[in-house]
Amino acid sequence: MGDMTDYSPDESNKSKLGTTRRGFLSQLGVAGASLTLAPLLVRAAGDSQKGEDIAAAPAEITSVSLTINGKTQVLNLDSRVTLLDALREKLGLTGTKKGCDHGQCGACTVLADGRRINSCLTLAGMCEGAEIVTIEGLAKGEQLHPMQEAFLKHDGFQCGYCTPGQICSAVGLVKEGHAKTDAEIKELMSGNICRCGAYQNIVAAIKEVQNA
Amino acid sequence: MEPFKLIRAQDNLQAIHSAGIKQSKFIAGGTNMLDLMKLNIETPRQVVDINKLSLYKIEEMPDEGVRIGALVKNSDLSYNPFIKTHFPMLSEALLSGASPQLRNMASTGGNLMQRTRCPYFYNTDFACNKRLPGSGCAAINGYNRMNAVLGTSDQCIATHPSDMCVALAALGAIIYVQGAKGIRTIPFADFHLLPAQTPHLEHNLRQGELITHIEIPALPFAAKSHYLKVRDRASYEFALTSAAVALDVQNGIIRQARIALGGVGTKPWRSLDAEKALIGASATESTYKRAADLALATANPYKDNAFKVELAKRTLVRALKTVEGLS
């Protein structure tokens, strides 16, 4: 029993996925681990609400090294690019969805160093050294993650748009280990909105994985 | 979002030095900062990422106080066994706020710095003295159901949004900050500012000063404490009203008390008047009601939020009865 707890995001929180190499980039025809990317979102002059001085400000480029679904990537991005946009627009990992883009809906949920976060409210440049797992990284080849299997079995979705975020959030919830009852599962899944209303079946899927 | 330079600070001094210039902002969890940057409400030219600093520890003090690193995530703080045992109101407040994903991102220091969710602050089509000093306050004559009734001014009635800060106000926390001139401490009550005539000034930090720790002094009776939050839906919503309460009741007499309210103030609202009314009185509902009346005595409701005055009183009385039941 120590009198100090260190919650640093250190290596012990990370998975052992470092050597797993997945084929997303090669499928996209992008060779190598280092990508030099043109800045996103550069505005035309006069497009700003703030006047000429802001409109003239150039984009700033940030370089970041991070591991995504087991593969280490070096990205050079406009500093404004969120983790969500880097995943979707730069790496073609479109499983992670953009819903509200303001941290309210949970569609963008991914796992960062094993924890569920909103990728829309994280700058890619803040992820130096992080291990990111997206919905594309949960399955092992053709073998689905148990949470994916459970969502299929219990019909935990209708349109499917929120589902990648729901599944990543559910994986995080099980790992956190704080939800013991249906009410606690509902409370701790409240960061993921489902407009189709598949909530009962999502709870059933999570319980199945918890009890497996 | 406007362009900015991202600087990843490796230690406190580098962070402080980098953030010493105007239009520079720290970013930790980013849950509020990036949200506001996307809306062009925050437009820093330079953003200093402080996530690599060594401020992730929760240290128990020999006297049973606790020192919390500014980067400790809200989720880690809420589930920390020492916090749950010694300061349950803080754990409950944290768990009542935001969502699990946001709590996994949001830092303790950043929670102190989060800005109001007044819809007129968020919508750049409307006047807001907090966002654009001198432009007016669209909330005062607008739809102000969620706005504050305590600590308001004729310039601003924006509610302070934090749950965690309500508990820290009740607990009398101390903020440790480091700047170019060294380290200083700020009592919690002095950290946030009332809007008065300058609602754009929200806290007592100087440019470049970094929150490094939050200390909660030992308060043994806070082991019997509670945070009660009332809101429009059961989860993932800001407070209409809330109360953080700790009571020390011995033989039916209240020996010590801590009271703070959320959802009703322009800053986290500790009520010393309510505490004084409780101390030495018998632990009965009539005592609690008297304290609640005193806590809201200076309330100044607006068109749509008059209900908050009564709701805040009932919230406080309910929380006091709950804590009495723990004794």
UniProtKB/TrEMBL annotation, chain B:
Keywords: FAD, Flavoprotein
One of the record's GO molecular function terms: oxidoreductase activity
PROSITE patterns in the cross-refs: FAD_PCMH
Keyword Repressor: no
SMART domains: CO_deh_flav_C
Identification of the protein by name: Xanthine dehydrogenase family protein subunit M
Transport listed as a keyword: no
Matching PANTHER family: OXIDOREDUCTASE, XANTHINE DEHYDROGENASE SUBUNIT C-RELATED
Segments forming domain FAD-binding PCMH-type: 1-221
Classification via InterPro entries: CO_DH_flav_C (IPR005107), CO_DH_flav_C_dom_sf (IPR036683), Diverse_Substr_Oxidored (IPR051312), FAD-bd_PCMH (IPR016166), FAD-bd_PCMH-like_sf (IPR036318), FAD-bd_PCMH_sub1 (IPR016167), FAD-bd_PCMH_sub2 (IPR016169), Mopterin_DH_FAD-bd (IPR002346)
